[in-house]
Write a structure and sequence with these properties.
Largest interface: A-B, 73 and 73 residues
Number of domains of chain A: 1
CATH topology of chain A: TIM Barrel
Low-confidence stretches of chain A: none
Strand order of the largest sheet of chain A: 1-2-3-6-7-10-11-12
Helix content of chain A: 40-55%
Structural class of chain A: alpha/beta
Distance between the termini of chain A: 29 Å
Order of helices and strands of chain A: HEHHEHHEHEEEHEHEEHEHEHEHH
Mean pLDDT of chain A: 96
CATH class of chain A: Alpha Beta
Number of helices of chain A: 13
CATH superfamily of chain A: Aldolase class I
Number of strands of chain A: 12
Oligomer: homodimer
CATH architecture of chain A: Alpha-Beta Barrel
Shape of chain A: globular
Chain lengths: 308, 308
């Protein structure tokens, strides 16, 4: 799947990913009204609204982008119907040729991690059948439990040609509370990065590993170091745009080959119509506003990479 | 909800929790056959089998125990139907008066953590309605992202009178890879424990906080230290039985008042009928075997606490 991600990035010339994290207040009135008219003010109604919202944005942007990253929490909050909308979104994006990164941040141990890996990247055996529960292409994983937690995910990735992005340095203000603490003269995130590099070595595609890392756009100096610590890993970069990360800061997350990183934007794309810059589109044309925001983001990151 | 947990523990005189982590190979043949006869070898069939398995065990044990801990990964691996079985299990256990600890190990930041908190402990707003997505009483949470990840959970707990167990020191062999690394002269898990104590102070019930911790039974010396670091937090203790933790090792996880800890057993209870010790019950009477295993566990931990 890392090969497909790389192909898609080369084809679109866009090392970006659109975060499909639909908050209810992002969804334009007309979609909410239609969904409530059909299903009432229920979990089903909310799920229908976010699914229609996603579908419209994917239809308008899929030809420009290599990948999407649905954040499962935004679906899980609408219970079972919300998770049905998640599954529909995953399936639809795959049909459109997009790589789907399930931002699930799961992490447990042994048979429990194996169950999460099966849920999101693999198949589950039921009698004589092997069935696909959610079927994303990549999943984000939390490393706090150590190798016991990561190994079962890696085994599924090897078997199914899927991939991981392991949290190394997250984009939030308090990420340093534990991640930056000094261990044997270097910060914990660097130690986690070294482990990621070790795991990555055992899961190589052609030039890059199936095992990538998450490093926030908001800590560019750390990103520069971590790029070198994990040379074979793709870095998934949250925090661009809404959280404050700028394109010029992100050039060091990429390798010399122009690959090795994929920058996420969520509300900056999917809620673009609510920004002054894209207000001219209006709420009716929210998906076209998202398309324009994608074009602008590709341009922004592309020119930063050219000028590095 | 911490008050209800304490009441239930006092009423049953059993500081234990049954882990409802149904692997397909734990479910006796007769239940699997019946479920497949109705739904085929499908995700629905698997979900029906684990739900009937859970229900039988809950029916046979609910009067002896204060709480259950369903591990959501074991349901998520069966996709949407699996999560429906999770929800049914949560609802059924609450009807039976049990405290339900959702072992979900979620963790993210800001609005994403808020969405997870709403999903598992709170309500979600849909139009003018406030709806309950999954509705557990407690949730387990991963601390790697720091305060930004925990605060949204705490806010929901305060509003809804729910509770958390934050991962501090997990029971698995490789948990030390990151958790035991020395930071300013003490291990990282102790630093996380100090943060838990700080968060716990802001969320007090009568004598204990809504904010508890997870500390594995397999590291009793560390449990002893962490008990003192987090005096107001309940400790959820995995790793008893199958993973090797012994009752005598666990007495230091409790406070002098005999409270402050709740010991989990999953396969030791729910798959008891597969152990030699309980083989006489046979697969037909798997739930009675579970009941006997609960009785034995209560006795084992009770006598260790008396003899400390």
């Amino acid at each position: 799947m890392i090969q497909k991600l790389i192909e898609n990035i080369k084809k679109t010339n866009a090392p970006i990913v659109v975060g499909l994290d639909p908050m209810m207040n992002f969804v334009p009135e007309q979609l909410v009204k239609a969904a409530f008219a059909e299903f009432g003010e229920t979990l089903e109604g909310a799920a229908e609204a976010i699914w229609q919202f996603n579908k419209a944005i994917v239809d308008e942007t899929y030809d420009l982008i290599p990948a999407v990253k649905p954040q499962i929490a935004m679906y899980e909050q609408f219970g079972i119907p919300g998770l049905q909308a998640f599954k529909k979104t995953v399936d639809y994006c795959k049909e459109k040729g997009l790589v789907v990164i399930g931002d699930v941040k799961r992490g447990d141990i042994g048979s429990t991690s194996a169950a999460y890996a099966a849920a999101h990247l693999g198949k589950v055996q039921v009698g004589s059948q092997f069935l696909t529960p959610f079927g994303e292409d990549f999943a984000t994983v939390n490393p706090y439990l150590g190798t016991d937690g990561i190994k079962p995910f890696i085994e599924v990735c090897q078997k199914e040609k899927k991939g991981l992005f392991i949290l190394v340095k997250t984009s939030n203000p308090s990420s340093g509370e534990f991640q930056d603490r000094m261990v044997d003269g270097r910060p914990l995130y660097e130690l986690v990065g070294e482990k990621v590099a070790e795991w990555a070595d055992s899961c190589m595609g052609d030039d890059y590993s199936y095992v990538g890392a998450v490093v926030g756009a908001t800590y560019p100096e750390m990103g520069k170091v971590l790029r070198k610590v994990m040379p074979k890993s793709f870095i998934l970069v949250p925090g661009y745009g809404a959280q404050g990360g700028k394109a010029a800061d992100l050039v060091h997350y990429f390798n010399e080959d122009g690959l090795g990183a994929i920058v996420n934007s969520s509300r900056g794309i999917i809620a673009a119509y609510r920004q002054e810059k894209y207000a001219k589109f209006g709420a009716e044309n929210f998906a076209q506003a998202s398309r324009q925001a994608v074009v602008d983001m590709i341009e922004d990151i592309g020119s930063a990479l050219e000028n590095r």
